[in-house]
């Protein structure tokens, strides 16, 4: 059974031989927790070499793959603070005013990793950071589902078994700056403003308004994870 975040937190999980391809084949459904603020399922695991993140989003997934991607930050002190902590964003589906085709999703944006001077890396990089993703429309679903896997070498994070971390998942939509910094005046729309759109059902209009408003806003959450030890 998939769990709501209010019901459970992710547990320490030792998982070996994870193939980072976005298929989520190595992950069980009950390992995922749902966050309502981002409409996103997520879980985490590790082995002796990597920290693994797995994500599944089937409600307004376009906020990730049409706009600003998913930003993953690790706070190694267990605090809820992104400042000066290592983070990775993928994909960047927009470059300035240009829409980036899926076949060009080959760049990771990163910062605050000791020993890495670059701010952008190819997905096939010398540091061992790996990403994989899939996008599809499930049967009877009106929206695309986006699945994402990330592997970060523990050596880059300076982490060891049993250590507790805090982590943040942030979806920025098309806003580079936070809403608190730029203000929200005039940013939100209602059904009434679009109710006269021809040949469009109420359900379709409500979905459109929801997606526009969500893309205008930053949504994120914090959680914690204790690195697992190898089972005997």
Describe the protein.
- Strand 9 and strand 10 (120-122) form a beta hairpin.
- The strands form three sheets. A six-stranded mixed β-sheet has the order 1-2-3-4-12-11. A six-stranded antiparallel β-sheet has the order 10-9-6-5-13-14. Strands 7-8 form a two-stranded antiparallel sheet.
- The chain contains four helices and 14 strands.
- It has helices spanning 62-68, 154-157, 179-182, 202-215; strands spanning 3-4, 33-35, 40-46, 50-57, 70-75, 87-90, 94-95, 98-99, 107-111, 120-122, 130-136, 145-153, 164-171, 219-226.
- The protein is mostly beta strands and 232 residues long.
- The chain has two domains: 3-175 and 219-226, Immunoglobulin-like (Sandwich), CATH 2.60.40; 184-216.
Q: Gap between N and C termini, in Å?
A: 27 Å
- How would you describe the shape? globular
Q: Which CATH architecture of the largest domain is right?
A: Sandwich
| Whole-number mean pLDDT | 85
Q: Which percent range describes the beta-strand content? A: 25-35%
The number of strands is: 14
Instruction: Please describe the biggest sheet, giving its number of strands, its sense, and whether it closes into a barrel.
Output: 6 strands, mixed
Ranges with pLDDT <50 over ≥5 residues? 181-186
**In terms of quaternary structure, what is this?**
single chain
Number of H- or I-type helical stretches: 4
Estimated structural class: mainly beta
In total, the number of domains comes to 2
- Regarding CATH, which class of the largest domain? Mainly Beta
């Amino acid at each position: 059974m998939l769990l709501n975040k209010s019901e459970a937190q992710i547990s320490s999980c030792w998982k070996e031989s994870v193939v980072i391809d976005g298929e989520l084949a190595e992950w069980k459904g009950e390992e995922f927790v749902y966050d309502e603020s981002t409409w996103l399922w997520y879980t985490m695991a590790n082995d002796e070499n990597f920290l693994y993140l797995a994500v599944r989003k089937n409600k307004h997934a376009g906020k990730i793959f049409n706009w600003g991607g998913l930003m993953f930050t690790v706070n190694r002190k267990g605090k809820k603070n992104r400042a000066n902590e290592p983070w990775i964003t993928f994909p960047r589906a927009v470059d300035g005013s240009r829409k980036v085709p899926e076949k060009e999703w080959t760049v990771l944006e990163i910062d605050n990793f000791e020993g890495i001077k670059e701010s952008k890396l190819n997905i096939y990089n010398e540091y061992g950071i790996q990403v994989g993703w899939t996008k599809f429309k499930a049967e009877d679903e009106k929206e695309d589902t986006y699945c994402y896997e990330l592997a970060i070498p523990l050596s880059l994070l300076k982490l060891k078994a049993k250590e507790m971390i805090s982590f943040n998942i942030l979806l920025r939509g098309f806003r580079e700056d936070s809403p608190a910094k730029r203000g929200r005046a005039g940013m939100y729309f209602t059904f009434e403003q679009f109710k006269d759109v021809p040949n469009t059902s109420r359900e379709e209009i409500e979905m459109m308004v929801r997606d526009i408003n969500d893309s205008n806003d930053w949504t994120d959450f914090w959680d914690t994870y204790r690195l697992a030890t190898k089972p005997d």
